[in-house]
Amino acid sequence: MRKMTEKSLSEAFCGESMAHMKYLIFADVAENEGFTNIARLFRAIAYAEFAHARNHARNLGYIKNTVDNLQTGIDGETYEIEEMYPAYLSIAVLQKEAQAEQSINYALAAEKIHAKLYADAKTSVLKGQDLQLDEINICPVCGYTHVGPAPEKCPVCNLPKEKFKKF
Q1: Burial of 21 by CB count in 10 Å (0-12 exposed, 13-18 middle, 19+ buried)?
Q2: DSSP labels for 21-70?
Q3: What's the pTM?
Q4: Which of 64, 89, 121, 123 is deepest in the core (most CB within 10 A)?
Q5: Do residues 109 and 98 touch, judged by C-beta distance below 8 A?
Q6: Does domain 3-60 have CATH number 1.20.1260.10?
Q7: 60-67 long-range Cβ contacts below 8 angstroms, 24+ apart
Q8: Are 51 and 106 in contact (CB under 8 A)?
Q9: Residue 72 and residue 68: Cα distance in Å, rounded?
Q10: Nearest to 137 by CA among 129, 128, 147, 125
Q11: In sequence order, which residues have a C-beta less than 8 Å from that of residue 56 and are 6 or more positions away?
Q12: May I ask the CATH class of domain 133-167?
C-alpha cells in the first residue's frame, strides 16, 4: 500500500473508531434522559462506524490471527502502562488537573490487569486451549476488570458490586 493511502486509511480508522465510541456514549446519555429511540439511533450508527473501522483495519493489515492479535493487545497495554499514561499523569499533576489525574489513574490501574489477561490468554492459545472464564466483571466508573464474581466494592473507585457490568 502506498504511504498516502496508508496514512489516509489510518486517519479514517482513528476517526471511525472515535465516532463509534462517542456514539455509544451519546446513546447512554440519551437512554438515561428517556430518549430510547434516539439511543437506539446512536447505537445503530455506532455499529455502522464500527463496520467502517473494521474495513479500514482489515485493509491496513491490523487484523491477524488470535495469537498475533493478543500480542498487539499486550504491546498496546504495555505502552499505555509504561509510557503513555505515566507521561499524561505527569502533565495532569503539573497542571493541577485533578479530574484528568483521576481518569488517568483509573485507566492505568485497569490497563495493568488487561495486559496480564491478554498474556494469560496468549499462553492458553499457544497451548491450543481457550481461557477458562466463568465471568468477567467490569467497573463502569473506572474500568477495573475482574475475572470471576464482582468484588464487594471496586478496589480502585469503591463502586458497589451490584453496579459492575458482567460479561
Answers
A1: middle
A2: HHHHHHHHHHHHTT-HHHHHHHHHHHHHHHHHHHHHHHHHT----HHHHH
A3: 0.90
A4: 121
A5: no
A6: yes
A7: 60/1, 60/6, 60/9, 60/10, 60/13, 62/13, 66/125, 67/122, 67/125, 67/126
A8: no
A9: 6
A10: 147
A11: 9, 10, 12, 13, 16
A12: mainly beta
Local confidence pLDDT in tens for the 167 residues of the chain:
999 999 999 999 999 999 999 999 999 999 999 999 999 999 999 999 999 999 999 999 999 999 999 999 999 999 999 999 999 999 999 999 999 999 999 999 999 999 999 999 999 999 999 999 999 999 999 999 999 999 999 999 999 999 999 99
Grid cell for residue 114: 488487561
Domain edges within the chain: 3-60, 65-129, 133-167
CA separation for the pair 57, 63 (Å, rounded): 6
What element of type H or E holds 137?
A: strand 136-138
Residue whose C-alpha cell reads 440519551 in the numeric block: 30
Q: Is 138 helix (H, G, I), strand (E, B) or coil?
A: strand
Yes or no: say if 53 and 13 are a contact pair by the CB < 8 Å rule.
yes
The region, left, alpha or beta by phi > 0 then psi within -120 to 50, assigned to residue 7 is: alpha
Other Cβ atoms within 10 Å of 53 Cβ, number = 21
SS3 category, 8: helix
